[in-house]
Specification:
The chain is an alpha/beta fold. It has helices spanning 47-54, 85-93, 102-105, 112-123, 128-141, 147-150, 160-172, 190-207, 218-224, 242-247, 252-260, 319-324, and strands at residues 3-16, 19-32, 36-40, 63-72, 75-76, 95-99, 178-182, 210-215, 227-232, 235-241, 307-308, 315-316. It is built from twelve helices and twelve strands. Helix 5 (128-141) packs across helix 7 (160-172) and helix 7 (160-172) runs parallel beside helix 8 (190-207). Bound molecules: adenosine-5'-triphosphate and magnesium ion.
Amino acid sequence: MGRLLTVTGLTTEFRTERGIVSAVKNVSYHLDEGEILGLVGESGCGKSVSQLSLMQLIPTPPGKIVAGEAVFMGADLLKYEKNSKEMSQIRGKNISMIFQEPMTSLNPSMTIAKQMSEMVLMHEKVTKKEAIERSADMLSQVGIPDAAKRLEDYPYQLSGGMRQRVMVGIAMICNPKMIIADEATTALDATIQAQLLELLYEIVGRYHTALVMVTHNLGIVARYANRINVMYAGHIVETGTVKEIWANPLHPYTEGLIHCVPKLGERLLPIKGMPPSLIGRPPTCPFLSRCQYRQKSCFEENVADLTYVDGGTHATACNVRLKEAGQ
Ligand SMILES: Nc1ncnc2c1ncn2[C@@H]1O[C@H](COP(=O)(O)OP(=O)(O)OP(=O)(O)O)[C@@H](O)[C@H]1O
Ligand SMILES: [Mg+2]
């Protein structure tokens, strides 16, 4: 598998009246071609901002990417201007985003045919007729029966499940290298969410497209992902394969998340305590106030850089665990 994306030291801030919000702090990770990467963490921990930064889609101002690199297919995306031709070619063509809220992602006043074919016409030199044919083909690939006829529909004429399929079709129609699926803040019906992920999983496998699954629910990503990044208060605090994360979580926050995985149909049980304010945070471990394993030294040391143990695929930012592992 070739390396598709390498993010190094990504740091994004928002300048607000209350102060500077450190939404994403020194975040580094990678993604291989065709790989499924889960990104999990509580609401407000920086999952969406980290992904939107990559796509140069954060509102500026108040947002600003203050440091970092995001090398995608050999070029640093963060060097491009937000409104540059390069960036608008990459969005939708090489990297697609899916927000799991179909009613807000689809344009209610445009037919499905128009929404899909415009995506193709924007990025590829094809005729309108070819673009419509491609759209019909993609609709049947995402499991919509009678696709040619459905193309003429407006979003409101489709069921919720079908709208999700259309969204996936739009994301896939230019055969991107990578899809970012970002869960809506308001949790969708668990069954509908599972259906969408199942569909995505199936189609990215077919086309060998890399997928970043952004969610609160560790249980869900564990089912589909190859590797998982765990985010807390703007930091990636742990990364590893699904097996490593489940069998041997190296960050107390990850351990908390595992205990919180809801059984089928249940809501997520929150970890005790509140995440810290992202304004004026000290350089110590962000999980300190909630951590049941904290030691005296944790109050004195800066949060560790995400460090791999055993030179492998499993890394943590917990000073205590790193010392235990001899790092
Ligand atoms: N436009 C903005 N202005 C100020 N702060 C912002 C802005 N957008 C995001 N933030 C802050 O950045 C932090 C990270 O937000 P983000 O949306 O990435 O969280 P998230 O992990 O995606 O949460 P959720 O699971 O609820 O979607 C939050 O504290 C949020 O308040
Ligand atoms: Mg989000």
